[in-house]
Structures are given as structure tokens and as C-alpha cells.
Amino acid sequence: MTSSRVVLTDTDSGVWLDSWKIDASNGPHLSGGSHWSINKKTLRGGLADGVDVVTLDSGEISISVLPTRGMGLWRGVCRGIPVEWRSPVIWPVHPRHVTMTERGGLGWLYGFNELLCRCGLSFNGPPGNDNGTEITLHGRIANLPAHHVSAEVSDHGPGVLSVTGVVDEAGMFSPALRMTSTVRTLVGSTAITIHDRVINFGGQPTEVELLYHTNLGRPFMEEGAKFVAPVAEVAPRDEHSARGLDRYNRYPGPVAGIPEEAFFFTLQGDATGQTTVLLKNAAGDKGFSMKWSLAELPCFTLWKNPAADADGYVTGLEPGTNYPNFRSFERERGRVIKLAPGQSIDTALTIEVHDSTEAIRQVEDHIRSLQKSEPVRFAGPHRKFSAGVE
Amino acid sequence: MTSSRVVLTDTDSGVWLDSWKIDASNGPHLSGGSHWSINKKTLRGGLADGVDVVTLDSGEISISVLPTRGMGLWRGVCRGIPVEWRSPVIWPVHPRHVTMTERGGLGWLYGFNELLCRCGLSFNGPPGNDNGTEITLHGRIANLPAHHVSAEVSDHGPGVLSVTGVVDEAGMFSPALRMTSTVRTLVGSTAITIHDRVINFGGQPTEVELLYHTNLGRPFMEEGAKFVAPVAEVAPRDEHSARGLDRYNRYPGPVAGIPEEAFFFTLQGDATGQTTVLLKNAAGDKGFSMKWSLAELPCFTLWKNPAADADGYVTGLEPGTNYPNFRSFERERGRVIKLAPGQSIDTALTIEVHDSTEAIRQVEDHIRSLQKSEPVRFAGPHRKFSAGVE
Amino acid sequence: MTSSRVVLTDTDSGVWLDSWKIDASNGPHLSGGSHWSINKKTLRGGLADGVDVVTLDSGEISISVLPTRGMGLWRGVCRGIPVEWRSPVIWPVHPRHVTMTERGGLGWLYGFNELLCRCGLSFNGPPGNDNGTEITLHGRIANLPAHHVSAEVSDHGPGVLSVTGVVDEAGMFSPALRMTSTVRTLVGSTAITIHDRVINFGGQPTEVELLYHTNLGRPFMEEGAKFVAPVAEVAPRDEHSARGLDRYNRYPGPVAGIPEEAFFFTLQGDATGQTTVLLKNAAGDKGFSMKWSLAELPCFTLWKNPAADADGYVTGLEPGTNYPNFRSFERERGRVIKLAPGQSIDTALTIEVHDSTEAIRQVEDHIRSLQKSEPVRFAGPHRKFSAGVE
Fold it and tell me: Could you give the domains of chain B?
């Protein structure tokens, strides 16, 4: 096995490549196929000016990674199917244009448009004052640029393409967390795997909250689309969502001004703790699945925002170390990780696109096999999941 | 008629030109003259680093447009006369350096130095909490960069030079407004016309406030300078301004530390609703006029800030869809526009420089012709215009 | 004497050099030696992207100046000894990534990692509302980029290397202050001198606070390291610091989570008002001294933060025009400077590295010679220095 690694950004040595590309014409022979590439570009103009985009293309799925925005995934395309949603914010927003303190701590929303963005690392959930610390919506990580970025091609198996970024979320008198994220695909595959390691490089124990805000619109979400998961428990976040509990796993078409709903879950997994969830379209011939370890990401949140297309018709499939409640509540419920100095957590998350009825049936069969017991459905917000419930 | 258009910035296709120029030497023959040009530069260093400047030069007037700052007009020169004011903030400030939430929501003032900047699009006026939404001074549009910018030269008539920029003011769970602004001049002319279209590209009705904060210092403003307008009604904004009502249309020389005054107007127009206002210097040989439609911009505010030259000796001539009061008051008075999804408003504003007694007399004659009835002068703040008045 | 000056940045004329270097191979012959240089680079990637660094190297000491961060000194190296501290924030942070209003006005701390950064110009100390003005921690100057930067080499004496930057801290309806800072070294020297001039270029009297937050970690600070100064008075900032008064001039090794201490001083000087302070390591063979005029910078603060190395094991030696208390208290105590329009203040500060027992003994002898009277030691916080004390 041989592999070659190119440094795209490195603050220490002053490296930054404006654009760069490797594919079958200038890279190694990979047994999985010849239509692969890794392509680095820099966006220009508007709020996107200066945003780095690294696109991995397996030949079947391409995914655009944003080192400038905390290694989020902007959007993808799989065999012609867009893997994305349409936010009113059209292009990735450079973090220097995002002021977290705007809109009463909701400024994060001015930069929200990715297929996958992380909420964390030190806090996520709504803004507020947590024991004297002012925290803002969904934390800092999605608006912190990587100081080291590299791309790698290996001829292992069918060929492996990856991009790795290192992002520090640190400050004086503040947690010092470093995330090393690798986004990887195999040549010829329709799947993408994200491996993240978050280490406390500070000198004191520090809290971590990490949630993968994975967002999809059309064509996976549409009227009649369905969410499928091996549910252990499900509870509506609030009274409004409770009114939608009966149809929590089905999607309506867009409704202008409809308020969002959210549901909190515990899921069932296989013997090794791996679980899988699926979003499939009405016809059942286009699906998006996610696979991860419940030991790493025990909490799952489903966010339903079937607003007008122009306002962001979108649903969020959100595995996390916690639910996106205010941090003090999550701490109280024992769902905030505490990392000792030098200690780290690892997560792995695989997303995959399925474009045939047969492939989707297989995923559903697998999910059914994980469902060992009847789901518990809480009719209203439950004190285990939601604050302010007796 | 032939015209050629060059894209200077386009986020979608990754275009951005650091510098670019067209003039008689490399452009078309224009019948209005040969001393015209369009010149694109990028500012470097300090808070201005990265700001795009596109300068249109008709041969008689040149004007510098700032796509990076919401298509504001930085400053101009007409036949050697500076068309500008002198803010303590010397160069245009890149929006990434402006934090709206500083100074208790007045952070906008750290970037304020243009001949013309827009206040809006979703709100303008003072900061505060409007029904649960934190709004900041004068809104976002002046600190949002265009994601598409093009320049055009046409041989229509004497020759037409223009620059067009598209700026999105949008966010998730936030209004989605798009402004397309064209700044245009005719070869040989001393006038500049601004055409703006603001469209609601979101899926729900949304509010719009738009005010053209047009600011002038010397030589148009000076001791003895005069403001001339076809006044229907005039009211001081507050008690302090009321004490200056008698001399509202005349200017003193600079006075260090003098508090600003503001006056709210309704104006009279011609049969088609067009109105004109004028600022002329003491000698009456240098004038700056503005022309627009009262149907588009029914509200006019005069801002007088005859402070020390070093602090910004300046007056603002401000046509708008509203007065720059807190949005909730303007809404109450029916002066906040509500745009349905897909709906848009259009505005056109022409500014012109006059450099002879004769030319200025003609503008004054025209304004006099618009004055069909006696102006109503309110001695104090009036409940139609100012909040907190019984 | 001949000297040559190169403009590295100038907003007015559009100059900005990405990289540039002068040394003995392309510069003048300097009698002090041939191992000198001035080297300009631009940092790339992460939060440091776009930060200009100008490194002066005397042959014995090199120091990296940050025009992008208000002419702060990032770090130095003297004869192989690092002159720095290690913040959890590893590289200089571009001001566009620093939002002062985060963390309840403490956002400044997200960009804090320099050997020397200025706190000011209009205010320093903690955040809060000072008579209607919202101020944020330690002011704006450290996060404002210079709009004019030049480097100069002169063959005067052994050869003089310098970099000069001009930084405006201004805004509409806000103080208008301009700092011109020159950082200079002599070829063959181990010392660096900083000359700053701050002028009020506004039209009204305005307040100034200026403190040189000079920060050192290993190897100068370590267990057994000592602070030496000609103390007139010393008072602990607060009750917590009071408990450390007995050992205020000695340093422990790192202790994870230890709270910071601060001490306020008046110092003694020579007949011309010059004073000197020293930080020396345990063995007494590595020392860092600072020299300045008590007429210019009468207030001295010692900040002790012997936290875990990973959290920033650091001490601050901080001469200033004031103590870093909230501005209203400093104003009350008469320690806020008021500059009339056009008026300026000048400061000069020399830092020097000493790497032998003998050299350090000489500095200590000199400090002892300045100590003309017994130091007054206040057992607890004193009303002269700390707010809230009766």
C-alpha cells in the first residue's frame, strides 16, 4: 500500500494553497475506478470570500468539505442526486462575517446552510448565561477555521480519498479543545465517513458537547418522506412538537411559516452498539442513511422544519453526545462530557446515499433487525429530555 | 446600440478581479467624450484591507462605489470639487471589522464615512429589542458585501457607464432580502443615478425599511450654506432640535461638541410625484441636488451635525421609505413596508453636482415650482413623526 | 549617516507587500555586525490567516511585530532563549476573528497570546457600562490593524533597525486617537525599544488609557523565579491577592486551576524619572528587564498567573498610564489622561534580555540604587488602587 499526502494549509510553516487538484491524470492508479478526484478551491466574493472548499469525489459521490468552517460538509452530489438543503443563506459564510452575539446570541444562524455542521465543542444548544459564562447558539466550532489541512490518496483496497483538518477551539481563561477531523471516502463508494477526535489540550478538566447537525432537504425530504430508526424511546421536545408526535416520522410538503418541531430519542443498536437511521423519499427510491456508535453518540435529535422551500425546507438528523438543550440542563442530566487534561473522545459517523428501492429495503431490514423491543413513546415532553418538565 | 458587460465578482463561478480598468483606450467610442473610465481597485492595509472600489468617471464627475459595503458610495469628485465629508474613520471599513453589537448596538458607527450609505433593509434607526428581535443601529445592508458585481459600458446616447451589485441580506429564521443596485452615469454628465430593487426571496411576508443616508461636508456645507426643498411639513425630531427649528435650513460653521439636530419632512412633488432638494454653499455657486419619487421614498429626514471638522462636519439628506425611528414606532405609523414572497420594491435616486450660480438658480426655480402650498411647520416634535409625543 | 525606508503597507496608495526581506546581502553595511535582518511575512490558515508579521533581528535578539494587531510584539528569541509565553491560543489571531462582545465583553481573551500587547487607547480594564458607553475588556487597540507600515535601516552607530506602524482607533461619535509606534533595535544589541505617540486627532478633548501588557513564561518565569523592582508602594488588587502578598515577588511552578493574583505598584526612579524592573529565573542567569519613564507611565501592575503550562503559565509586567481597573474608578482617582484636540502623549519602553549572572547582577545593582526609601506594603487592597475599598 502506498499513500501520498499533500498539505493544503499549515499555519506553522506558512502553507496555503489557493487551488489544487489530484485525479487519475496526475495521481496514482486506484483499483476502484478512475473517476475520482480531490479538488481544492477558494470561494470568492460576498460573505463567502476566502472560504476554502475541498471536494472529495469517489466517482459515485462527491462531498464538499469546508476547512474554513470547522470541517463542516457543505453539500454533496451522488449519481446526480443533490445531497443538501437550500438555506436562504446561499454560500458558505466566512466565520469572520459571523458575529455570534447578534440576534441576542443567535448570530450563528446567519451562517447556517451546511449538509453537516458540528455544534460544540464546549457548548451547544440555545444561548444564555451558564453559571456566569455567556454562551451563544450552538457554540464556536462551526465558525473556526482549520490551521492545518491535508489531503491524502491511498491505494488501499479500492482507493481511499480523505481530507484531514485540525481546528482549535481555545482561548485564554477558556477551554482548550482541539478537533482533528478526517472525512474519507472509498473510490466507487456512495458513502462518506467522518472520524473526529477531540482532545483537551488545556491543563484542567473541561466540558464537551458535540452534536452533528446533519441537514437534508429535497429530494430526500418531501411530502410523504419517512424517517426510519430503531427507536428505544422518543419524546417531543415541547408541547408544540407533542402535537406532531403521531406523525413524527413522516414529512409534509412545505408550509410557509410552519413552526419547527423537534423530537428527542434513545436508539437501539447491534451487539457492538452500532446504530443506523434512514431518511427516505416518498417513493422509497432515494435514501440517506447514517451509521454510528451509540457508545460515542448516545443522543439523537430529529429536527423537522418543513417551511417554505424559500425559507429552508429541511430536516435535521442529529446524533450527539447530548441533546441540544441549554448546557446547564444537559449537565444536570449527566450528558455533558468532562475531559481530563490530555484526554480525548473519538467519534465516527458514516453517511450513505441509496438510490434504489432494493438498497433502501436492505437498510430498512437492517434497522428492523436492530429493533429488539417495542419503542417507548412519551406523549409529551419528558423530564429526562426536556427542561422545565415535572 | 452595443454594450459590453464585465463580471468583476461572482461567487457562483469563482470570479473576482483584484483590479480592472476600461476607458477610451481599450473600450468603445462614446459620443459624449473620451475622458471616461471605469476603474476597479482593491484597498489594502488597515481596516480597509480587501475592500473593493469601483470608480465610475463620466469625465465630469467620478464616484467610487463600494460593492464590499453594500454598494454604498464612498465619495466623488466633480470638476475638482470633492463630493464627500470627512469622518474620523478615514477609509472604508471592511464589514468583517464591524461588530454591530459593540457600543450597545451602535457598532455600525465604527464604519460610517460614506457619501451615501443605505440604512436597512430589514430595519434601520436606533438599536433595541423589537418584539423579541434584537436589532442594531441602521441595519445590516451597509456591511454586507455583494456576491455578484458587474460593470457595463454602453454607447447609448452620449455613453452610459454603470456598475451593478447584488447583495443578500438573509439568514435562517430571518428575512431573506436581495438588493440589486445599479449606479449609473452618462458620459459628460455631472449626475449619478442609483436604481435599487429589493426583493423578498423568502417564503413569508417580511418587513422592509430603506433609507438613503446621503452625507455631505465641505464645500457644500459651510457657514451660510442652505438647504432648499419643497416642504409640505417639517417637524423637529426632539426638543433639542426644536430649538433649532427657526434656522433648520441654514448651516453654522463647525462647533466642537455641538449636539446633532434632526428634522422630519413630508415634501411636495410634481404631477408625477418627483421631488428635488438642494444643498448649496454660502456663495450659491456650489450645489448638490437629489431627485427621487415620493411614491417610492415618501419620508425625508434632514440630519445636521455641524461638529468640529475633525469630528465629522456633516449634514445628511435622507430620503427613505420611513423615518429613522425605532422600527416598532414606524410600524405603528404604517411606514414599514411589508413585502409578500417574491414581491419587490424599486427606487431611483439621482444626485447631481452644480457648480455655477446659474445652474443652482435653475434648481431653486424648479424646487419653487414644486412648492404648491405653504409649508406646515410644527414647533415641536409631532406624534406623526416622533415617538413619545402625545 | 544614511538610512533607507521601505513602505510595507499604505492604504492611501494601495501598497501592501505579502513578503519582503532585507539583510546584509541586499542592504547596507552596518558596523555592528552582519547577522541582522528585517523580514516581513504573512501568516496563512486558521485564525491567523492574513496577519502581517515583521521580524527585526539584531543578530542577538529577534522580535516579531504584528502590525495587524495594533503593533503588538508576538514573541522573540535572544541567543536561543525564547522570549514569550505559551497561550492556549497558539498563533496571532486576526482582529476580524475577534468579537469583543463575546463572553460578556471578554471576547478580547480569544486573541490574547502576545509577549507585549497594548491595552487601550480609549479604555482598558474590565468590561461594563461607563456612563452610558459600553466598554469591553482592555479596549480596541490590540485588535486594530495599522494602515501604514514601514521598515527602516540606518547606519547610525552600530546600525539601527526599525518598523513603524500607524493605527487609528476612531469612530463616528467616538474618540479619534492615532498611535504611531516605532519598534527599534540596534545591531548587536539584546534590547528592543518601543516609542509610541498617541494623538487626539478629533475635535474634542478625549480620554486615554494606555497599558503595556508585557507577558512572559518560561524560561524567565519558573519555580523560584523572582521579580525585582524599586518599589515605593505595593498593594494587592483584591483579598485573594492579599493572601499572596508575602511572596508577591516570587513565583511558584505551575498549578492547574490556580486563580490569578495582581499587585498594584508605585515605583521609584532615578533623577530623570527612569525606572527599571526585572524578572529573573531561579538560577539568576536569565533575566528580562524593562525600562521606562515614570512621568510617562506612572502606574505599574504585576499580574501573576502560574497556571498549568497548557493553560498559560505567565506573568504580566505592566507599566501604564493607569491601573487596569474599570475606567470610571481610574477617572475618579485622576489616572485617566485627557487629551485636548491635537494634543499627544509619548511613551518609550525598553525591554532587554540578559543571559549571564553578571549581567543580571548589574541590573539588580541598578534597581537597588533606585530604591531610595523603604517600600510601603499595604496588607490589603487599598482605596488608592482598588475600587470598593473604604
Answer: 3-377 (2.70.98.10)
